TrEMBL record:
It comes from Pseudomonas marincola. It comes from the Bacteria. The keyword Signal applies. Residues 1-18 form the signal peptide. This is Lipoprotein. Keywords: Signal.
Length: 166
């Protein structure tokens, strides 16, 4: 019985790891200059939420801060040495880490994709990209795009003007 429980637990852990959105293997090459502030609209089948995202450069990596529209922090992560690190007193948020990883892919230049992501993990055309396991990016232009995760969640991104920064 204990062996069976251990086997099931191991399978669950491995499947959770396999479904993670990959991070770049090296320093990401972005087509935007940091710092950058973005408006995000998250849509599911029954809800719509608006968020603000600020991405700031740091000596070793970058800081990603997500806020609701009244300025309440929802998530803070640091990207350094190819890993996400929790920052502050906010609890870990797997959805946000997955979103930030997919956003990093969306903001990367095509040469950056070739240099930093396994070739079989992504595809790119002029106005669309896909990233395994289940992200799809559709661009209106470089700074306005939509990220979709499977059939259930959609995120629309647009930059904020300098005077709108939180």
């Amino acid at each position: 019985m204990i062996v069976r429980i251990l086997c099931i637990s191991l399978c669950l852990v491995l499947s959770a790891c396999a479904a993670r959105t990959p991070l770049p293997q090296g320093d990401p090459q972005l087509h935007v200059s940091l710092p950058v502030s973005m408006h995000i609209q998250r849509q599911t089948n029954d809800t719509t939420e608006d968020w603000l995202l600020v991405i700031q450069p740091q000596a070793q990596g970058s800081r990603w801060s997500l806020f609701d529209l009244i300025g309440t922090p929802l998530a803070r992560q640091q990207l350094s040495a190819g890993q996400w690190h929790d920052e502050g007193l906010l609890p870990p948020n797997d959805e946000t880490r997955e979103l930030f990883s997919a956003l990093l892919f969306s903001l990367s230049t095509v040469p950056g994709l070739r240099d930093n992501y396994p070739a079989d993990s992504w595809t790119s055309s002029s106005m669309q990209r896909t990233l395994r396991p289940d992200w799809r990016v559709s661009y209106s232009d470089e700074s306005h795009f939509t990220l979709e995760k499977g059939e259930h969640v959609r995120y629309q991104f647009s930059p904020l003007a300098d005077n709108e920064n939180p």
